[in-house]
């Protein structure tokens, strides 16, 4: 009977072809997978995967009757068969990449069972079966063999994955000066020339001196004699003894460039001092190994993950973890934080989940994995329903806290078209948070939901620098102490008046100095505070400012409330056409030849009034960490108009429209950003009032945005922390105040927090106290 019925439905069955998206990893509307107790149903018509809760609804909507049911069973390998070798050592500050924190894949085996299901009766036909029609057999075989949509996206994402350990070639390597002072270095038995230390020793490649390195946080390391030698002599390159291998690899540090570097001539440089690398063996830990050891014992990794505490796992609604999909911890932390906001919960979880997906399905039934509303609802329901956060059975031998849910489709959809968020590289949580909120403002049905959030960027660097220097501490990448400052100091710096040079005043019709003061026009339900702990060195290398900021549980921000136009103040007149800025072409070319971005060079020449190359270069170096350093330069007080002769870049236009923007929006954005693809989407997000116009009597008027407002008192309800020294590597965790207790969300692990490290956060969320 089943085979006869199957034959009647042959016309509904499709054989997958190259380019078809096959969603066989998980349900497009839930986080049910082949590993779920009820398995996964994949339509042999559309190739969409459905959990058991959604497959009948999908059938009622489409009348697609035939599905491949995939049920995967995990079986633990007996301990005696797992092998008794040492645990794989972590060698990189990364997750899901070679050498990094890798999930244990050697404890289990997986068995898959396939059946062909015919709805609505759920008749089942085992696969493989000799009696299947050829078309059905080919369709199922092809579907099983082809890569799923997630796997295909992963291949695309990994194609340009950045290796966080790639080191730049030192500028000193090619022409390094080496003295002929008669020194020869023995193959072992080294000791610091200025103390008795025999570990953490560095050979200066110019004069052959062997001296100890810097002291580490835990008191180990050295006495800093190697860097003292550099300050005395200026000899820039040193190699760490004990890290030299037969392959010619070793830890080489450039004091001048203030970073670990690559020396392609290392073999020759070592030979000058009588060192034959063919006879060398690695006997000491590399700097990255030391950093990992220290982090795991003393540093942020222990504090932020609360590794020193016995964490009690939590389960149930609101306590579901998110699986790390290869350096996606930034996404996991941000989504956990957003889904404590009532508006997000109400929109994506507490409303009728089925009703919402039905409504969206009518508009976009062919590919719900590409609909922002559907995937946000899916993620919200997954995190808050408790369906995917159940405690293990008493008989379970699994030592994991919980499995967590993998946000595969959400990550692919949100990151599509973005070179960073689509990849498997580590990304900055604050940049992703702003990107996501802006994206929701465009794609989500218009409401006040996104306007509950404001963002303060608190620049802690100058405050931190002044307070550290007052204590006799040098604040740079060599700093080995963690300065402590107060949030109040950061906020005072944020709200302090600053002078804007070369401001064009339409009232005076000339350039003058202006005072700029930042205030908040309204106080939203939730306030996000971003501590700008990352900056860049002179060589554009990003570094993290290791500082502890004392964050209060409650704060009153009334002193930051804006009061609008004051008595005696007048708005600058409109309609005055300023003279275009003039740049010295010779100086501009010289600056760009030095490698600085064109917009930064224009800023430098504008604010130094084209005085000299030295003045412009100094300005660039002083402002290299500014957030708008490389943004399109518009002189202060000037509203420049793009040239009427602008021609849109068609390739860029197609890329922007592929993100879901209209052709008109994309054209305006590219025109405003001079065809800069990376900045075009950001421009759209920040100019919604201009783009969302309503025609009234033939006149286009911009829509008015409304923002919630209330009193200025807030309480701390969540924070995201970053571990590691660079935005490109490391790990993010999230702490949330739920039910009057702090909870740590460390990817799929969710537990009661015993010691929330509030002073080490990166992004903080405060809730207004009514």
From TrEMBL:
Pfam families: UBA, UCH, zf-UBP, zf-UBP_var. It is an enzyme of class 3 (hydrolase). Zn(2+) binds at residues 192, 195, 212, 225. Keywords: Coiled coil, Hydrolase, Metal-binding, Protease, Repeat, Thiol protease, Ubl conjugation pathway, Zinc, Zinc-finger. Residues 451-478 form a coiled coil. Residues 581-623, 647-687 form the UBA domain. The keyword Oxidoreductase does not apply. It catalyses: Thiol-dependent hydrolysis of ester, thioester, amide, peptide and isopeptide bonds formed by the C-terminal Gly of ubiquitin (a 76-residue protein attached to proteins as an intracellular targeting signal). The keyword Zinc-finger applies. CDD domains: Peptidase_C19B, UBA1_UBP5_like, UBA2_UBP5. One of its GO terms (biological process) is proteolysis. InterPro entries: Papain-like_cys_pep_sf, Peptidase_C19_UCH, Ub_carboxyl-term_hydrolase, UBA, UBA-like_sf, Ubiquitinyl_hydrolase, UBP13_Znf-UBP_var, USP. Its EC number is 3.4.19.12. The active site is at 329 (nucleophile), 731 (proton acceptor). Gene3D superfamilies: Cysteine proteinases, DNA helicase RuvA subunit, C-terminal domain, Zinc/RING finger domain, C3HC4 (zinc finger). GO terms for molecular function: cysteine-type deubiquitinase activity; zinc ion binding. Residues 320-769 form the USP domain. Residues 168-277 form the UBP-type domain. Belongs to the peptidase C19 family. This is Ubiquitin carboxyl-terminal hydrolase. It comes from Lasius niger. The lineage of its organism: Eukaryota, Metazoa, Ecdysozoa, Arthropoda, Hexapoda.
